[in-house]
Amino acid sequence: MNQLSKKQLVARLLQSFGKKMLSSRPVQEHETELVIDKADLPEVCRTLVQEKKGRLFTMVGNDERELSGHFALYYVFAFDQLQHLITVKTLLEEADPVFPSISAQIPAANWYEREVKDLLGLRALGHPDRRPLILHGDWPEDQYPLRKDFSAALPVSRQPDRGTSMQYSGRDVTEIPVGPIHAGIIEPGHFRFGAVGDTVLHLDAKLFYTHRGLEKSAEGLPLTKALFTAERICGVCALSHAVAFAQAVEAAAQLTPPPRALYLRSLFLELERLYNHIGDLGNLCAGFGFAVGVSHGSRLREQLQQLNEELAGHRYLRGVIQLGGLRLDVTPAELSRLLTVLEQVEADFDELMDIILSHDIALDRMATTGVLSLQQANDLEVVGVAARASGRAVDIRRSHPYAAYGQLDVPLVQYTQGDVLARFKVRAEEVKTSLQIIRQIVCQIPAGAIWAPVPEIQPYTRAMGWAESPRGEVCHWLMVGPEQTVFRYRIRSAAYSNWPAVPLTVPGNIVPDFPLINKSFELCYSCCDR
């Protein structure tokens, strides 16, 4: 599709809203914003998703009272065929901070709309679930931490917990609470099962027990310092978040890093995907007690993380990214060493997959367990491995290319069964495609600089950056403040998109299958507790 036809199609899409569109403007080359009255939100958003085939990419609430006297909501929709984003913006009066909910029509908006109530005090009228999401039931109802006049330094007095968990009734239903403190050394999450015998009827999942307030603490930080915050959103997706934040800053500055920097970003992103996917495949084997798979998965992951340390000085690839490019280069000798190690890892990995996928017990435990249908995946805008295992063709490396992915062949790995086995196989095949992509990069990588200075950014410019992390796409929304600082920073992780889908896959399975189902999504708590 050439640029002219793309512009025509975007213009035609916007024209369909007629007088409902109060104004429109290009924000970046790949994004157009339209401003509407809040009363028209449900119709416009429904049209973009159900008729125009967009998908809800992220949603942001922003306290812009010092700029315009209003709060603002930004609903961002991705049009993968056009490689374009449409942002629907609406303003809310401080005296009337309510807006019509779209969650009944677009279920993926559920968490977003509950979150802006918790953190900004903006209430979605008609929302089907009025429970708090992030602040739980003991937080005062009149304290909104993302408002600009809220001081993060002041303590907040807590109230008696109002209780927000599902209550089960019936003599045959057993309530099984698990967590938030778990036997394993993992992050806190509370899972409350309603079961008859060992068959699960319903699962209520409650997260956000250790919310860190990163978006609030980032306000006012210099952009260079905020990059360190981005790297610490998630331990094992540190590079993906750093790349997404750097891209948001670079888009705001209208800067394209040097070609070598873009190729090296893709190289390190694939290395991050490799050690995660192989480690996750091993962890999955723990769900059905297959110790050989656990041990060899851990061994191969360790080998890859040692390779990361050799190349970048950090096992989790922190410190690689800087605004405008990278902090370090890779020599020809290091690239040769990289290919040698990956060849050894691939041979061992192939042998391990043959062992697991020829084992009857492994196949029996994974097949038809924890099914997520394509309809459910589409309704909740599920991303990453979980989406592709249910037949949903979303991979932002292909649909909205960044770094060097536009110059690389990135195969789409896809299954339709939506069960644990499909998620296992998607990861296994994506290990192979990552190895192919890395070999392409080594063959094609250009010489040259790895960094370019970031120009001054006009205050209150906004932009987005994204990356396909091992768990799926992440999106970072940024509004730059005065003197190259952060005015508003919104992080949408893959885990944030996918956690609402997990409880849908558990009913009808037995209780002992839950750890296996949960591991097959391999979701992070920390990515939500940002």
As for the CATH topology of the largest domain, it is Cytochrome-c3 Hydrogenase, chain B
> Hey, roughly how much beta strand do the residues contain?
15-25%
Query: What is the strand arrangement across the widest sheet?
Result: 1-2-5-4-3
Q: For the residues shown, what is the average pLDDT?
A: 93
Distance between termini?
38 Å
Number of helices: 17
The class by helix and strand makeup works out as alpha+beta
- In total, the number of strands is 15
The multimeric state of the shown protein is: single chain
Notes on the protein architecture:
The chain is an alpha+beta fold and 530 residues long. The protein folds into 3 domains: 3-125, NADH:ubiquinone oxidoreductase Nqo5 subunit (Beta Polymerase, domain 2), CATH 3.30.460.80; 174-206, no CATH class; 258-450 and 492-521, Cytochrome-c3 Hydrogenase, chain B. It is 39% helix and 19% strand. It is built from 17 helices and 15 strands. The protein has helices at residues 3-15, 41-51, 65-68, 110-120, 214-218, 223-231, 238-252, 259-286, 291-312, 332-357, 360-366, 374-379, 384-389, 396-399, 420-444, 494-498, 514-521, and strands at 21-28, 31-36, 55-64, 70-79, 84-93, 98-100, 123-125, 174-178, 190-196, 199-206, 321-322, 325-326, 462-469, 472-481, 485-492. The strands form 5 sheets. Strands 1-2-5-4-3 form a 5-stranded mixed sheet. Strands 8-9-10 form a 3-stranded antiparallel sheet, with no helix packed on it. Strands 13-14-15 form a 3-stranded antiparallel sheet. Helix 4 links the parallel strand 6 (98-100) and strand 7. The model has no long low-confidence stretch (mean pLDDT 93).
